[in-house]
């Protein structure tokens, strides 16, 4: 019977917002549990402090004896804050964070114990890593992996545990996590962008990639979520008829935040403040029960850590407020899905945003240089960029008319398009003084005004320029930003190196002046990368056709999209920039395929179970009620009964037809699964799941959803869309 559903509804309707105390000001709370620079100055020796700072700035390794000093200071601080344990905190390739807690505690014989945390324990830890995905790396080489401290991301205390942000690598040094390649890519972009930035300002010694993510999510009451096995096990609904009212009225987006949600947000933000995550914006999103949270942007590695940490604490805090957070890209069919926009830019140690407008023509030429090189990089590597956002769950969103399509393109706005059109006309070779003046005054000189007045927005572009940063909008809401950030920074680094080589080639032996050379190279890039620029409606069918004509990729599913990861060209690219080696890339490709297979496999099983164990029995029960009714009618009306039971008989038949379809399709789906499981090769298996198993989802769902409309609401066991989405 539908008792679970109705009990859950009753529970939900009786809930009150959980009280959240907010005594201290946010500015006072900020970073309270973070081992920040000022805390370090307080708890570390001068030498130790300096070596952390140096490691931060230059990537220089920290000496082992110094590590002992640092760990002692860190331990003192942590214990003063009530911490009892420490853990290396890392991001294995599973999409969540991992930790193994050890106590600051050591026996010293004679029944005595001390609190201890040595340099060795700070620098390195060996988690029991056999359960983390490794794509064969550890099997082939070494049985163990270890975690190593990343001094560029500050340690923090969560609960009573000191968390030390770490990388996770095999004993051969191969990356087993998201962070390692990201750090390498950030190093590559630093080198490449610093070299180019020096054309414009000799004082630049370091360039950092910046990331400001925007996290979308759904909040569903935990009792309601628990009443749906599909939500519990796969994070999304595998069936459910759309409600009479969806998001058409936009009343959620413009409405006020519901009180229970607001109280959740307040506690979450408080926790974020304490942990140094600079969250700033919160609002309702388009779909009912959908929300968004965004921080102030930070250095990319730190921003990635903060996003992972946030996703983790969101789930924990949601529990206290009787919510379940759905990060899934498409938890409800027919309702807007969730993404995680990645706002990206580059910033120098002299405090300049390289994608922001400057105050002089030369500074604007700098802007144009980084702007055009980014577009060129995206143009040359669009398929690889698409691969980084591929996942079983994001497949539901990309190209579904509500999110950017599976096609990567850049939107820059009409005014910057005009600027690039003008630059395209620049003469080949040396520029005349007149031409230069003209350029500086009328083209380059106008950029600041354009950027300040950037009202041009296009929400349908997958990679849009938004005034002083690019916004990669196709990233999935469950994704770890490290992946898209690793690739984006790698391809731009590669492109900037190329650019420098070409400009230096032209200026060598004073053949050409520097700015002439820059204009010349940029002109060619503008021409070469035109195909990636699109200003129109990215959700339209015309764009799909147009993109095909332009030769842009449109990889609609994950196995197809992932192919780009392992092309020889891309392996060469990663190796050349020291971001990943062949073994690491191939392992990652394999892990992504396995993950994809697993997701579809699990969903297929859940769908089969729900349809057979919940939907069909309920349908039969209702059918029996109808049959009894018809029998009764026959008793009363005798031969005339057909006239009075016409509708009932029709529904009885309809129910049978749906049951028949559901049952036979589940049998076929299971057969398809068995066939797929026999395949050895991960790619073949993934394609088989994609093309042979997944297509059954839609049709099984169709018949189940039809039954939902036919059957008496009183006995329908699965919590309905309207209840999941509109109960507060
Ligand atoms: P919007 O109008 O799109 O909401 P904002 O300008 O407020 O735009 O920025 C949206 C996001 O972009 C924020 O999360 C912010 O942190 C981020 N952002 C702003 N500037 C940068 C930058 N230079 N680098 C990276 N992210 C940035
Ligand atoms: Mg945005």
TrEMBL record:
One of its GO terms (molecular function) is glutamine synthetase activity. Residues 84-173 form the GS beta-grasp domain. Pfam families: Gln-synt_C, Gln-synt_C-ter, GSIII_N. Residues 178-615 form the GS catalytic domain. It comes from the Bacteria. GO terms for biological process: glutamine biosynthetic process. Transmembrane segments: none annotated. Belongs to the glutamine synthetase family. This is Glutamine synthetase. It comes from Salinimicrobium catena.
